[in-house]
Design goal:
The protein is 39% helix and 20% strand. It is built from twelve helices and twelve strands.
Amino acid sequence: MAPPPSPTSSVAPTPPPRLSVVVPLYNCLALTQAMLASLQATVPAGLRYEVILVDDGSTDGTRAWLQTLRDRPPAAAAAPEFHVVLNDRNLGYAAANNRGARLARGEWLALLNNDLILLPGWLEPMLAALTALGERAGLVGNVQLDAASGAVDHAGLVVNVTGKPVHARALPPVFARWIRPVRRVPAVTGACVVLARPLWEQLGGFDEGYMNGGEDIDLCFRARELGRVNVVALRSVVRHHVSASPGRKQRDEHNSRRLALRWRDELIAAADDGTRTWCRGYLAQALAIPESREYRLALAACGFLAHLRRTPPPEAVAAVTAGLEGEFARWDRILGVATPP
């Protein structure tokens, strides 16, 4: 009689994490360690997540510290999986994030700067906004406070009267944030942002033609081009050591010009903040100098500011267009390049 088949044992495969966190690093080891401690302290219980650390040529001991993460024993059930990527040289913010995101396995992708201090409850409102928007979801940002002063540094990106994206720093009253917990914006900063990983892959990640600036706004505008909605989760708050990485601001003018060349028409169309600023300025002048007042334009400006009309007066749009053209003239002068018509 043949013996019964021997029982076989198998280990169930570990389910993939729901969230993949990508953190580009360039020096600032103490800030990185503090940021990761705040991450592990604030991720909701029961959420499986992985952390992908991409070092971009650090020289301050970061690489030796990353080796200690690699040498750790297998993580406990509640701890994140750590993955380390070492770039041979400094490739910049866009390329570092792209390289890290290619390893991501989660349903959601969180891009975090290494100079953040993550506060309790920061993640849940961002994921709630992503879930509520569903297939319309673009990039979800949050409110960021300057770590040194506590002042609001970022509550979304808006387009000003010169056609340039700038940080919104005004918040609705607290009660309004509970009634309407998200704010629709043209773009959010990549310092702390969450999006669905399939959308990231559809967009192709960051454009590596930008060097440490502008790539996050470009990604947001590409999401808008697909009909996606970018929002700020107003109940999510973190602290940020603003521009702590060395060399962060060296290419600002080149990046701004590249962004404006790519999205000239879209920046003008998205300049709600800029056209409202122009309308407020016009009305202030009309009150101060009554003889300069044109009643049709004053009524149109009032109606737009009061949200009684959806489109700004043509004069306001013309002012933003002229402001952006002025920026191109300035870039031509300081960068020694000629802007195509």
